[in-house]
Specification:
The protein is of the alpha+beta class. It folds into three domains: 4-69, Uridine Diphospho-n-acetylenolpyruvylglucosamine Reductase, domain 2 (2-Layer Sandwich), CATH 3.30.43; 74-226, Uridine Diphospho-n-acetylenolpyruvylglucosamine Reductase, domain 3, CATH 3.30.465.10; 234-336, Alpha-Beta Complex (Uridine Diphospho-n-acetylenolpyruvylglucosamine Reductase, domain 1). 26% of the residues lie in helices and 28% in strands. It has a five-stranded antiparallel β-sheet. It has a four-stranded mixed β-sheet with strand order 1-2-5-3. Strand 15 and strand 16 (268-271) form a beta hairpin. Helix 5 crosses helix 6. The two termini are 25 Å apart. The structure holds flavin-adenine dinucleotide. Flavin-adenine dinucleotide (FAD) binds at residues 14, 48-56, 69, 90, 115-118, 120-122, 124-125, 127-129, 177-178, 227, 230, 235-237, 335. Residues 14, 48-56, 69, 90, 115-118, 120-122, 124-125, 127-129, 177-178, 227, 230, 235-237, 335 line the site of flavin-adenine dinucleotide (FAD).
Amino acid sequence: MQLLDNYSLEKLNSFKIDVKARKFVTIKSNEEIIRLQEKGMFGKDRHLILGGGSNLLFTSDYDGTVVHMDTRGMEVTHSDDDYVYLRVMAGEEWDDVVGYCVERGWGGLENLSLIPGRAGSSPIQNIGAYGAELSDHFHSLEVLDKNTGKLREMSHEECSFSYRESVFKHKEKDRYIILSVTFRLDKVPRVCTDYLALSDELEDMCVSSPSISDVRKAVISIRRRKLPDPDFLGNAGSFFKNPVISRKRFIKLREEFPGIKFFEEAGGVKIAAGWLIEKAGWKGRRLGKAGVHRHQALVLVNHGGATGSEVLRLAEDIRASILDVFGIELQTEVNII
Ligand SMILES: Cc1cc2nc3c(=O)[nH]c(=O)nc-3n(C[C@H](O)[C@H](O)[C@H](O)COP(=O)(O)OP(=O)(O)OC[C@H]3O[C@@H](n4cnc5c(N)ncnc54)[C@H](O)[C@@H]3O)c2cc1C
């Protein structure tokens, strides 16, 4: 374990923002992170735990230590008649985990295929896509509690998952380092193909009774077609969350904007933020080297050489415009550093 100075983070964030960390360390085992804790690293110095860097926007050089979680390994801890319990180390690539499960016929994660990032970050915003969320097949996770220096396990309930949310983003923000995540996977998979784009894709593939492998293929195909690849166009996926508003407010809004795109939710109505941004005229627009993707208005992009502040300024202009046109306040999904 080596502490490096002035380390470039350009290749370690999917926006490809060219910034440096004052100090940088790669973690290859839980023992290494415990050693850092014992040395007092998480008490005094400013620090950032980094996974795949696909849900952050660096707005300047990082004046502290970036701790890159790169611990690897997956093991079945136990199984019963219905489920396999798979423990995955934090540094595993998320999509490798999904592929591993699908290859073995264990169901539950296939709708989340090709989401960038590492397994350890996946519970933080309860990643979701194509009608599924991580919390649907999450069992528990292991953390290092920076306050007490102790390791402990946290249950599903303790994580307080909701739409792109968990306890790690609010109540216990920055308290824990996630070391491993355990998933509860179906031995007899039940595919979930309710999401319209997914069922359409399966129909185009001429698949009438899809397996989890078909679902994975369909999701990968849609994502490759619709989302910009960060290796070619820097981005962090959806920049904003889809806002959830009350039914009463929605009815009024729909009178004014009859074409509004929405999804029914238990606690209200979820509005497609991409539709709002597009309708307000932002799709494809540029501000310096930052821009709004020309096909996906929810995705902000780095056209090459953009600074984090440029991207942030664009995001702030969009937020102000959506508030002005629709009276809705957008929340960012991406972590601003
Ligand atoms: C092209 C593209 C498509 C995307 N599509 C989706 C999608 O469909 N659905 C979706 O939900 N998300 C999507 N995302 C967002 C992103 O992939 C997820 O949020 C992912 O889980 C982030 O993982 P990461 O390892 O890159 O996290 P990072 O960006 O490295 O970190 C995110 C946050 O988690 C913290 N963190 C990271 N690891 C740990 C750890 N081990 N312990 C404690 N804190 C930690 C970081 O400090 C930071 O605050 C997309 C991103 C891109 C670029």
